[in-house]
Design goal:
Elements (H helix, E strand, L loop, with lengths): L23 H9 L66 H4 L24 H11 L8 E9 L5 E8 L6 H6 L4 E6 L7 H15 L10 E5 L4 H6 L20 H13 L3 E9 L2 H7 L2 E2 L3 E4 L8 H21 L4 E3 L12 E2 L8 H7 L3 E10 L6 H21 L1 H17 L5 E3 L2 E13 L6 E16 L2 E3 L3 E4 L4 H9 L5 E2 L4 E17 L10 E16 L4 E4 L5 H8 L19 E4 L12
Parallel strand pairs: 3-4, 3-5, 5-10, 7-8, 9-13
Antiparallel strand pairs: 1-2, 2-4, 6-12, 7-10, 11-14, 12-13, 15-19, 15-20, 16-19, 17-18, 17-20
Length: 604
C-alpha cells in the first residue's frame, strides 16, 4: 500500500540556481515557492526595429530576398507509384486567383522535392509515400544521427500515425534520450487533412535534419516529427477526422485516436516545445464578407488559455514568436497574428485563435511546453503557390528549432521552474475558471481580388492576447472521482496525470458541486457554433465531509500537470469532462480541500 506522503510532484532533473528576475511578478512567485530557482528573463532583442507581432511586415511584391537559412540543397525523391488519392489540390469553387494577386506570391529560390511536390503531380504525398519516406530516413547511416520510426497510433480508418524521432543521443531509447540532456521538440503537421503544406514541409525538414544542413542542430536537441496527424483526412482532402470531429479541438477530451496518439507522444517524450503547422483559408468567407482575399503568408499565435504559467507564455512569445517573425520577414514573407472569422455572413469581426483548453497549442502549454501555431496561406487555392507555402512552414519551423538549440539551458530552467511552481500551489491560491477574448478595433490588410492592391480595413478584432479573466476559484488539494468514472481516469492518465486508486475506505473534506442551472447548447468556437452539444451548468460549492470508498480515485494537484486536471474536472466550463459527457454526474467528482489521509494502491 502507498500512504499519502508518497504522493509527490513529477521529478525533474536538478537545475542550477538562476540570477535575479527583472520581472516583479515572477519575484513575487518566489515567496510561494522559495526552494525553486528563478531565471533571469533575457528578452530577445529585436534587431533593426523589428515591428511587434501583429504588425504587417512585408517586402515589396517583386519577390523574396535570397534564401539565408540552412537547407538549400534539394533532397532526393522517394520513387513510388503515384496514387490517385489523396483527393487534394482542387481550388475552392467560385474564385480564381488573378495574375495580379498571384504576382505577390512568387516562388522561393529553393525548390522543395518531396514526393507530393514532384513535377507533374496533381496530388500531395500519399500516406504510403509518406511512410516510405520516413522509413528510408530511419535507415541507419554514417552521420552519427539515430532515427527511429515510431507508430504513435492508428487512425479511425486503419492508417498508421507515424512519427520520426531524430537524435544524436547514444540511442533512441527513453533512457538514453534523458541521459543526453537534450530537450525534445515536437513538430506536428496536417491535423486538418485539407492543409497539406505543413506535412510536406516536415518531410523536407526531416531529411535536412537527418543528413542535410540542419543536422548540426541535433548536437543540442532531439526532434520528433509527426508530418501527418490526420491521415484519413489527408486521404480525403477533408479538415476533420473520419468521424467528423476536429482533432484540434480534441486535445483535452481525447475522443479521437488521432488526438490520443499525439497525447501519447507528449506523455512519453515530454517535449519542451510543440509547434503545430496549419494552413488558413485564402478567399471563401473573407471574399464574401470583406470583398478581399488574404494578404499574409503566415499567421502566428502563442498559447492563450487560462492558467498557462506566465514563464511558458513569455518563452513562447519572446523566444519563439519574435525570432520566427523576423526569419519570415527576411524571406520576404508577410506575417500577422493568427485570426479567423465565423461562418456567419453577417458577422464582420475577426477572431484570434481560441482561448479554451482544447487545441494542441493551449493544452500542450498547460503541460508546460512552449507552443506556437504556424498557419500559412493555402486552404481553397489547390496547389497554387505550394512551393512558397511549404517554404513559409520550413522557415518558421527551422527558426523554432534553431531557437531551441540556442536556448536549451534556459528552456529547461523555465520548464523545471514552472513544473515545481505549479505543483507547489496545491491547496492554496486561486485559478481562473475561464477567460474570454476582448474586443478592440484593428486594421487588417486584404488584397483586392482582381488588382492585387492592398485594402486596409478596420474591423472588430477579438483578441486572445488581451484576455478578460473570468471568475476565479480556490485551488483545491486534489480531486476525488467515483470508482465508475473510469473513462475520465483513463483520459487523465493518457494526458500524463497521476491518478491514484483508493485501496481502503476513508474520508476527506470536500467542496461538492451543487447544480443551480443547466442548459444544452452547441459548442462555441471562433469558427462559429459547432455541431456537438455540451452541457452548460452553473454550480455552487458546498463544503462537507465525504466518505471515500475503496476503488474510487484521487487526483492530487501537487503535480506539474495540475492545470490540465483543473481544465478537465471543473464542471462549469465548455471544455470540461462533465460538459462533454465524459463524467455523467456532478456527484462523481469533488474538490478535496485538505490533504486526505488515504491509502492508495501501489503504482509502478
Amino acid at each position: 500500500m502507498m500512504k499519502p506522503d508518497a504522493v509527490s510532484p513529477s521529478t525533474q532533473r536538478a537545475v542550477p540556481g538562476w540570477t535575479s528576475l527583472t520581472v516583479i511578478a515572477a519575484a513575487l512567485a518566489l515567496s510561494a515557492c522559495s526552494s525553486t530557482p528563478l531565471p533571469a528573463w533575457n528578452s530577445t532583442p529585436i534587431a533593426g526595429g523589428q515591428p511587434a507581432p501583429g504588425t504587417v511586415t512585408t517586402k515589396p511584391a517583386s519577390g523574396p530576398s535570397p534564401v539565408q537559412i540552412p537547407g538549400i540543397g534539394s533532397p532526393g525523391v522517394v520513387a513510388t507509384p503515384v496514387e490517385t488519392v489523396p483527393l487534394q489540390g482542387s481550388p475552392l469553387g467560385g474564385w480564381k486567383e488573378s495574375d495580379e494577386v498571384a504576382a505577390r506570391f512568387p516562388d522561393p529560390e529553393r525548390s522543395y522535392a518531396t514526393p507530393g511536390l514532384s513535377a507533374g503531380r496533381t496530388t500531395y504525398t500519399s500516406n504510403a509515400e509518406l511512410g516510405q519516406w520516413l522509413r528510408q530516413l530511419a535507415t541507419p547511416g554514417q552521420s552519427g544521427t539515430k532515427a527511429e520510426l515510431v507508430t504513435a497510433g492508428t487512425s479511425q480508418e486503419g492508417q498508421p500515425i507515424l512519427a520520426l524521432l531524430l537524435t544524436r543521443a547514444a540511442s533512441t531509447s527513453l533512457h538514453d534520450l534523458d541521459q543526453s540532456q537534450r530537450p525534445t521538440v515536437l513538430l506536428i503537421g496536417q491535423q486538418h487533412g485539407d492543409e497539406p503544406a505543413g506535412s510536406e514541409a516536415l518531410l523536407a525538414l526531416a531529411q535536412d535534419l537527418k543528413q542535410g544542413p540542419l543536422a548540426s542542430l541535433l548536437d543540442k536537441i532531439n526532434v520528433l516529427l509527426v508530418p501527418r496527424a490526420n491521415p484519413d483526412g489527408a486521404a480525403a482532402g477533408r479538415r476533420s477526422t473520419a468521424n467528423g470531429l476536429d482533432m484540434n479541438r480534441d486535445h483535452l477530451l481525447l475522443q479521437t485516436p488521432e488526438a490520443q496518439a499525439l497525447a501519447k507522444l507528449s506523455r512519453i517524450y515530454r517535449p519542451i516545445a510543440v509547434f503545430d503547422a496549419h494552413e488558413f483559408t485564402v478567399a471563401g468567407r473573407y471574399l464574401e464578407k470583406f470583398k478581399g482575399v488574404q494578404r499574409y503568408d503566415a499567421l502566428l499565435q502563442t498559447p492563450t488559455t487560462a492558467n498557462v504559467h506566465e514563464f511558458i507564455a513569455k518563452a513562447s512569445t519572446e523566444w519563439y514568436l519574435l525570432p520566427m517573425q523576423k526569419a519570415l520577414t527576411e524571406q520576404g514573407q508577410s506575417t500577422n497574428w493568427y485570426y479567423t472569422t465565423t461562418r456567419d455572413p453577417q458577422d464582420l469581426s475577426l477572431s484570434m485563435g481560441g482561448v479554451r483548453p482544447d487545441t494542441g497549442r493551449n493544452v500542450n502549454a498547460l503541460k508546460n511546453a512552449a507552443t506556437m501555431l504556424v498557419e500559412t496561406r493555402g486552404v481553397g487555392i489547390g496547389r497554387a503557390h505550394i512551393q512558397r507555402r511549404v517554404h513559409s512552414q520550413y522557415v518558421a519551423l527551422a527558426s523554432a528549432l534553431q531557437t531551441t538549440a540556442q536556448r536549451t539551458k534556459e528552456l529547461e530552467q523555465v520548464r523545471n521552474y514552472a513544473n515545481r511552481d505549479i505543483a507547489s500551489q496545491a491547496c492554496r491560491g486561486e485559478f481562473t475558471l475561464e477567460s474570454q477574448q476582448t474586443t478592440e478595433k484593428r486594421r487588417v490588410v486584404f488584397l483586392d481580388p482582381q488588382t492585387g492592391e492592398e485594402m486596409q480595413q478596420e474591423v472588430d478584432w477579438h483578441s486572445s492576447v488581451k484576455l478578460n479573466p473570468g471568475p476565479k476559484r480556490a485551488r483545491p488539494c486534489g480531486y476525488w472521482l467515483a470508482g465508475h468514472a473510469t473513462d475520465a481516469v483513463d483520459k487523465l492518465r493518457a494526458l500524463g496525470l497521476q491518478v491514484l486508486r483508493v485501496a481502503e475506505p476513508g474520508n476527506l473534506l470536500a467542496d461538492t458541486y451543487q447544480e443551480q442551472e443547466r442548459s444544452s447548447s452547441a459548442k462555441s468556437d471562433v469558427l462559429g457554433p459547432g455541431q456537438q452539444s455540451v452541457e452548460r451548468v452553473k454550480v455552487g460549492l458546498e463544503r462537507v465531509a465525504i466518505d471515500v470508498p475503496e476503488g474510487s480515485y484521487y487526483v492530487p494537484l501537487n503535480q506539474s500537470l495540475a492545470n490540465v486536471a483543473i481544465a478537465a474536472l471543473e464542471p462549469d466550463t465548455q471544455s470540461s469532462f462533465f460538459a462533454n459527457h465524459i463524467i455523467s454526474s456532478l456527484n462523481d467528482v469533488a474538490r478535496s480541500m485538505n490533504n486526505p489521509s488515504l491509502v492508495y494502491e501501489e503504482t509502478e
